[in-house]
Write a structure and sequence with these properties.
The complex is a heterodimer of chains A (221) and B (183).
Chain A (H helix, E strand, L loop, with lengths): L2 H14 L6 H9 L1 H22 L7 H14 L1 H12 L3 H43 L2 H17 L2 H12 L4 H13 L3 H9 L8 H16 L1
Chain B lengths: L4 H9 L3 H23 L2 H18 L9 H19 L8 H10 L11 H12 L4 H12 L4 H8 L3 H23 L1
Classes of the chains: A mainly alpha (221), B mainly alpha (183).
Chain lengths: 221, 183
Amino acid sequence: MKCSNVRKEIDRWIYQYEPETGAEIHRHITSCKACARYLEETRLAAGKIAGLRRMEPILENPEGLTEDIMKAIREDSTEIRHNITEKSGRLPGIIILRRLLAAASVCFFLVFGYEEYIMVDKISRLEKQNAAISQSPQYQSALNLKMAIGILASDPGLLNRNKELKTKKINLMSLFRAALYADMAGITPDALQLLKSSGYGENNLPFKSLLKHFDSTHHTK
Amino acid sequence: MLTNLQEIIERVKKGDQAAFRKIVEEYRQQAFSMAFRITCDEEEARDVVQESFIKVWQKIGTYDMTQKFSTWLYKIVANSAIDRMRQIKRHNLVNLEKVINTIDQINLENTQMEVENKETARLIRWLAEGLPEKQQMVFILRDLQGVDSSEVQQILNMSETKVKSNLYHARISIREKLLKTLK
């Protein structure tokens, strides 16, 4: 057996604290002075290390150390518990769900809140515009004209007459539109003249009521 | 030795401070020994122990119950102690005469050695001095602390081969140092 192998075995015995076995190794040690000395020295060194292992460091005031530890965990308990719950991964589903809900709420308020704001803003602006328009005399005139158009459009006589108007290349709606612009511009008599010049008969009751209405609107102004 | 350790750990996981105190009382001495042997300084070792138990309290939720609790705890202690050891800058040399005196006191018959922490620290420091950090750690945990090989692997995140190889080289160096002194 080679000396190097014998010394490896010696190390294993000595440091692992296993019982010495193997007759072959024993025979080698008896016949090899170098390996015998190696065994002796290794035993000595290992013995000193084993002795050092028995020199257990003494913990002075162990109760004081325990109290310091307990005090530290109590003082920081709230924060520590928070960390334990987060870091330990305990109830991860709830934690993830809670975070997702928070994120979703933020997104919801960002998207829908903005939309709501835009809608409210638009409605508010429209209401302001409507209020401004409804108070203007032009708006009233426009409403009256719209009503008149409705009356004329429902008259069968007008529908027949419309064919004649078309042959004279006069568009009744253009006239009304012109009358409307004229009325809005404050020149109602001209508008009336324009309508009269369309040749619509005096016997047509709706037209007569329309003329009356324009007259009254003009005089009230 | 706590017979109902698993139950106590379950209670600690729920935030039971009284159960945690039992853990501290059970393991404080072992934790201190390990920290002291690594740092070779009593005050530093106390700080390491305190810091380690606070970490245990904070991280108990991550502790896997299938793992041995002492291994998990010693890993925390060893890592904290190694960090401290790196920070400690030692300028003064070990008094060799005092070291030899202590070594001489050690003999196999003396099973109950009452030695002051200061002397123990001096001797460990002298023995581990000059060894690479990995060899130092394997030697301290395996030969001084008596942690078994598989636990050393887990504590230091080392393969079995690395542990064996580091331990072999550490023992050779320490053997030579001791023999030179004893001659």
